[in-house]
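Need a sequence for this fold. Nothing fancy.
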């Protein structure tokens, strides 16, 4: 097939040189003024082109569906027959293959090339966002489509995990695989009602399904042509419109143009009125990057792909999986607990992180019926610092954290967490909620702690009642966090500036 269709004589119109472009599921023959797409005889689970009859059917579907977005480009389906001199496109006789015939678009008009040349502007991407919003508004939707769409995204993730399992250790690391599995489990457990709500609002439609820069052309007079819609699997096309938006936004970001991605998404949201899209955007960005990682991983193992292209596909797959993990880390909430003796700077770090913070000092005084700034100079283990009151404080602290985590917010529990059982309570709650967990251990020399306490007491503005005597008593009662796995424990030198410590915490979570 490849050799036969490289011949200029195989085509019914003047052709100089035939160029071949290959994807993981098709060959595209660029011949003169036209392009011919031939589907590979594959069965990958999510698509089945294994028989000539199926390939013919999906060629017709491709033309039908893509004419919704770009009617002037998709010309029809032509047979490929075997004649006396070899394969012929559109000839008479029994077809041995079929091709989608398209009007050839100059490569310089494609959006990916425009981005490479620096010619794509925020205004252009805003136009594409508005164009897509109009196309989605015309796309069909139905209660059946809505039900299928909310089920299909969960099924697609399970399918992805199974299909890239052989790639773990090659194009995706075990840690990345675990991160993506954990994030998806959390999202589908805690945010599924949001997906259902969007489906009820008509946001699940018959979409494009594969909207990348390579799929968009800017024709003369600024006409926008969107091509290469998915035809082989309706459950990959019946999706939340956020899936289409996220695909192009992800592709622009991985090309180093987050400004174009932002302009595109903002214009789409404004034109469609779909302000709820922001709440699910990271989830779909992650999904689209992961799918591209899987697809490139598949291409890297196809024997017909030249060796140098297989190497490029492997590198590309790794970049896509890293991008998917970046979106997951950004969206997946984390429970952070501070751990350390009084006076080492736990509250200062917690504030520097800029996240939702719950202070044990404040919770303890609320439980005791006291205002936060009330001073109680009591001995360690006495009064409102008695073991019974401390247990109540940690239980309340953790439950308040749970409430915020269920809203999808990151939470910092600011407390000493001296005792192993209190850290285990927090770790157990994070596991129950399906969120990430990090214990930040802060340590500082005793002399530095004493100076800080004296300065704090002189200023009198802190809610903490801890004094030097309390620090010494805590040091005797201290249980080191040896039970916390290394991947969930970060020890820091508390003498460093708070902003530097905060960057270290967020950097650790980013890795």
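Here you go.
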């Amino acid at each position: 097939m490849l050799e036969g269709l490289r011949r200029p004589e195989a085509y019914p119109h003047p052709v100089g040189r035939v160029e071949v472009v290959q994807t993981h599921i098709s060959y595209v023959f660029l011949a003169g003024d036209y392009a011919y797409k031939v589907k590979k005889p594959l069965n990958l689970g999510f698509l089945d082109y294994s028989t000539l009859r199926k390939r013919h059917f999906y060629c017709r579907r491709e033309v039908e569906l893509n004419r919704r977005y770009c009617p002037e480009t998709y010309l029809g389906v032509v047979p490929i027959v075997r004649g006396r001199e070899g394969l012929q496109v559109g000839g008479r006789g029994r077809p041995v293959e079929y091709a989608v015939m398209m009007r050839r678009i100059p490569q310089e008009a494609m959006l990916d090339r425009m981005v490479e040349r620096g010619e794509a502007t925020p205004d252009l991407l805003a136009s594409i966002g508005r164009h897509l919003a109009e196309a989605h508004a015309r796309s069909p939707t139905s209660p059946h489509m809505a039900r299928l769409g909310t089920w299909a995204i969960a099924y697609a993730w399970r399918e992805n995990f199974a299909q890239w399992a052989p790639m773990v250790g090659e194009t995706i690391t075990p840690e990345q695989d675990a991160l993506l599995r954990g994030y998806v489990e959390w999202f589908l457990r805690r945010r599924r009602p949001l997906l259902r709500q969007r489906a009820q609002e008509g946001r699940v439609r018959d979409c494009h399904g594969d909207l990348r820069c390579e799929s968009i052309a800017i024709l003369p007079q600024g006409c926008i042509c969107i091509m290469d819609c998915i035809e082989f699997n309706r459950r990959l096309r019946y999706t939340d419109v956020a899936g289409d938006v996220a695909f192009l936004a992800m592709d622009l970001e991985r090309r180093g143009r987050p400004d174009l991605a932002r302009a595109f998404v903002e214009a789409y949201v404004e034109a469609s009125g779909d302000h709820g899209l922001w709440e699910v955007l990271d989830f779909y960005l992650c999904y689209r990057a992961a799918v591209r990682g899987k697809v490139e991983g598949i291409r890297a193992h196809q024997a017909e792909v030249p060796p140098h292209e297989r190497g490029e596909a492997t590198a590309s797959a790794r970049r896509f999986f890293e991008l998917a993990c970046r979106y997951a880390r950004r969206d997946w909430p984390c429970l952070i607990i501070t751990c350390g003796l009084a006076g080492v700077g736990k509250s200062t770090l917690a504030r520097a992180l800029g996240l939702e913070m719950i202070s044990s000092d404040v919770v303890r005084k609320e439980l005791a019926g006291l205002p936060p700034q009330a001073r109680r100079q009591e001995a360690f283990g006495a009064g409102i610092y008695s073991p019974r009151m401390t247990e109540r404080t940690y239980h309340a602290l953790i439950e308040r954290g749970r409430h915020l985590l269920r809203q999808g917010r990151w939470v910092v529990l600011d407390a000493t967490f001296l005792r192993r059982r209190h850290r285990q309570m927090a770790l157990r709650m994070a596991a129950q909620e399906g969120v990430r967990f990090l214990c930040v251990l802060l340590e500082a020399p005793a002399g530095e702690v004493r100076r800080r306490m004296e300065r704090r007491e002189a200023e009198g503005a802190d809610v903490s009642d801890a004094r030097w005597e309390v620090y010494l008593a805590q040091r005797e009662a201290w249980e080191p966090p040896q039970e916390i796995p290394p991947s969930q424990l970060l020890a820091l030198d508390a003498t460093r500036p708070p902003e530097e410590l905060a960057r270290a915490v967020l950097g650790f979570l980013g890795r």
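For context: The chain has a mean pLDDT of 92.
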